[in-house]
Write a structure and sequence with these properties.
Elements lengths: L1 E3 L3 H13 L5 E3 L2 H8 L7 E4 L7 H10 L6 E5 L4 H9 L4 E4 L4 H15 L7 E4 L2 E4 L4 E4 L2 E3 L3 H12 L4 E2 L1 H9 L7 H17 L6 E4 L3 E4 L2 H6 L3
Parallel strand pairs: 1-2, 1-3, 3-4, 4-5
Antiparallel strand pairs: 6-7, 7-8, 8-9, 10-12, 11-12
Helix pairs in contact: 2-3, 6-7, 6-8
Length: about 230
């Protein structure tokens, strides 16, 4: 989940609360950063404040929809006027929350949105810099050049880019890519990350996958690093 809000206290509280609900949370503090992160297509839901420095939530949402990003967006505003809500929904928002809102209501809205969009919501294209991961066609391109991956390699890269900006542990990759298969160990994750990294290296994209020692693996680039708030 991506939370875009210019108030540090709000970001921290939402991040703590949503993580307690089992969600991975990335935050951004202004409109341009939120747009850049949301444009990757790697989030299940975006919680987007309307009053943001640099670019309003309305304009961020408008750009996302214009660029074909269909990620569900919940707008957040201190205004509760019908016209404000209608404007947001007309731009393609999936819901509207008025500050101050109940955290319980927020979680319920997030889960309701995820139920509405269904299991095929993530079949679009993920973008990380010049890397594109087409989940529908199961193809990967770097600067327009196709990167040939096996089905298992694609699944692993899909998970990592789908959670760009966050560290994914070996155990999480094991569950997501191999499921309940027997005789699969963490060493196999290292092997397959190595396979994927070498293929990305061959086209100049190897730096996108990083090992975070003692924790797992991270898909990110310099631009993404700059806009993710701690």
């Amino acid at each position: 989940m991506l939370v875009v809000d210019d108030e540090p206290g709000v970001r921290k509280a939402l991040q703590r609360g949503l993580r307690a609900e089992g969600m991975d949370v990335v935050t951004a503090a202004d409109g341009p950063s939120g747009l850049q992160l949301a444009s990757t297509g790697s989030f299940d839901v975006v919680l987007l404040d309307i009053m943001l420095p640099g670019l309003s939530g309305y304009r961020v949402l408008e750009r996302l929809r214009k660029d074909g990003v269909t990620t569900p967006v919940l707008l957040v505003s201190a205004k509760d006027g019908e016209i404000d809500q209608a404007d947001g929904l007309d731009l393609g928002a999936d819901g509207y929350l008025v500050k101050p809102f109940s955290f319980v209501v927020l979680v319920a809205q997030v889960r309701a949105v995820l139920r509405r969009v269904g299991p095929d919501a993530g079949r679009g294209t993920l973008r990380l810099g010049a890397l594109e991961v087409d989940r529908g066609l199961r193809q990967v391109h770097w600067n327009g050049e196709e990167v040939g991956l096996s089905p298992r390699e694609f699944a692993l890269l899909d998970v990592l880019v789908g959670r760009a900006g966050t560290v994914v542990t070996k155990d999480e990759l094991l569950r997501a890519v191999w499921g309940e298969e027997q005789a699969v160990t963490r060493n196999l994750v290292e092997v397959y990350v190595g396979y994927v990294r070498r293929k990305l290296d061959a086209v100049g994209a190897g730096a996108l996958l990083r090992t975070v020692r003692g924790h797992g693996y991270l898909a990110s680039d310099a631009e993404l690093d700059e806009v993710i708030t701690p």
